[in-house]
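User: Please predict structures.

Assistant: First:
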Amino acid sequence: MNPTTDRKELASWKEVAAYLGVTLRTAQLWEKERGLPIRRLPGGRGRVAAYLDELEKWKEARPMASEAPKKLPWHWVAIAGGALLLAVVASLSLFNRPQPVSTKIDGDAFVVYDATGRELWRKLFPEMEHRPLNVHRSWIGDLDGDGRREVLFATDHQIHSELLCFSGSGELKWRFVPGRKMETRREKFNASYVVEGFSVLADRRIVVTSRHFLDYPSQVALLSASGKMASDYWHSGQLNLLSVADLNHDGKSEIYLGGIANGYKQAVVVQLDPDNLGGASHEENADFQLLGMSEGTERHRILLPRSCVNRQTLEYNMVAGVRALEDRIMVSVREAHGENGFGADYAFGPELKLLSAKWSDQLRPRHDELRRQRVLDHDLSEAELQAVNFPRVLK
């Protein structure tokens, strides 16, 4: 006790170290390196003292570690620094590696290129059908959110195909094989399905449409970014055209599909909600109803009218194009094939509300030609011209 100031003090290094909760050596290092307030006393070598109030102020100003940091031997420092440098170099090399930018089909190979046009890698598919490669069969982007690009590729085969996901350097990450065994009361379908197209949503989920290789049914599958199927919808017909759009600008994409409804022998447009996708289409003709399935969750399902030329010359009309614009879906329908072919063009807004419909100009001359050939027994009527404006809403 100091009789003049009545301040509490510690009278040795041992007491100071004990008060701070560290070793004697750490307390002495803190005096040299961190300004620990120690007073040297006269009379004997090494005599020290420390006031408790000064120690408390020092502790508040400098948060303490329990011990002074131990210095590593120089060779361990060198090893640790080298390891850190190698990790940094490896990381930079990984992210600076040339990234996939474009793809093409070269004979039996699917080839991926970087931004300079240099080939990065290729995969051989000897049974490929050699149909044109388009945006519905390949995709490049960061699918899993790790900052690196993946490549999606739908193989092309007459009997069965699948969706493959490759890393940017060409390693196979996952594969999705579409379809499964299905049946109606008159037909059974094995598990051989052909991918018709796919699209990646903003949230990195993947929509894949496929059909049985013989004709129908069609499956619309929703996959996670890791290739796991979350849900699927089934349709008694071909849904071979796919577009994804947010027409009502609510921040959520809708799925639009076009093709043929086999039970009606008619072109069809279907709208699906990715967050409520399931079941199978309801068919008025029970021969086409898929068994063992709940009712389909379509938001809308619309049949597009057939012209009398189509009814007389073909088994059905079909959707030939589905294209999303900012606030509408453009749908083209094929009514006749070949040199004298023609069709109809539709514009649908949100919730597939019809905005416009029009037969192509070739309808009248084709109709007149078939009338002269006595394939048709009547002149083109106003009612036939107006029929394009009245699609049949199934749901």
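Second:
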Amino acid sequence: MKKPRFSYEHAIPALATLSALPAVGIAFWLIWSADFSTRLQWTLTVFVGGSWTGTLLVLRERLVRPLQTVSNMLSALQEGDYSMRARVGKPEDSMGLVAYEVNSLRETLREQRLEVLEATALLRRVMAEIDVAVFTFDADDRLALANRAAEQLLGRSAESMAGRSAATLGLAEVLDGEAPRVVDRAFPGSASRWEVRISRFRQDGRPHRLLLLSDLSRVLREEERKAWQRLVRVLGHEINNSLAPIRSIAQSLTAILQRDGSQEETAQDLRDGLDVISGRSEALARFMSSYARLARLPPPTLVPLDVGTWIQRVVQLETRIPVEVQAGPAVQLMADGDQLDQLLINLVDNAVDASAETDGGVRIGWSVGRQEVEVWVEDEGPGIADTGNLFVPFFTTKASGSGIGLVLSRQIAEAHHGTLSLANRNGGKGCVARLRLPVE
């Protein structure tokens, strides 16, 4: 059987008693061995004994009470109560330093708790507002959390689904498959095409899985609708441009055949009308050929390409005005030289056409960033009036333009994992085209 140990409150006075006991004993011996009166001896004995006892009580109070205060504060912090605050003594005092550190810990925990509460509130709001179905499952594949979109998807409340297995909810097949992936699946709340994403995390030391289901059909339908609208607008515009003069000329030819006149004049009018019909028919055929060209752009064949050599080769093809080249650092790309030639020819051709209207110049150069090369073409033309239609197929402001140059150029840039943009210049007239291509 273990002997009961002294508590801290009793151990401190006991140790103080033992440490002072020899001195007190000697004091008592000196008092009673001296030639004092009995009354004085008892007075001195009571005084020494009382002082000794009082000192022990004060010592116990000064040592135990602050520790009890610190213990109460730590208990409150553990319970999440940050309203208590220890009274700090002198800075050089050890117990005062302990109280100061406990108060600092209280402030740190209070701020961290506020940050956690705010972050949790934000996370809950985001999960409630997003239209992506979010599920979390514990290590036993039982539902731990579901947001509002998940409730709508399965047609059940989160409370009624909590703790149910993925198989019971009809999500076992989705949860156990590969991710990310796209699946066609019908749920009680919707039947659509879904993008499935799964990630793992730990909560309370246990593994969990996060399942995200994004409805792709609505996005795809919206993009498809916009694509059809653009296609119908462009096709309708081009076909009407060809059919309108054909219809007008046909009506004129009918009127010519019905009126009186010499055969020579009639034949000439018929030839002129047929020439117009033939010209518009050829224009419509060129339009359809250009559309097919956009649709049949082959994937690039990547080979090493020196940027400086490539730009010099394209600039030499332009003979209308001299194009100034501002050379950049030597750099090579893995690219399809033929396709990039066509891209840069289109940009230089547009820049020269624009500068010809104002008798301005054209400059071309390049710079190298951390992981990309930027090739820029500047002109001193009138600038871009309508930037919204720059990359609309077959939209052009040129009298003889086809409207596919910029669209084809952007497709070539994107096929090389790059970007192409056009904007009006800052601090000068004209515009600048920027082609960014990855170095690797």
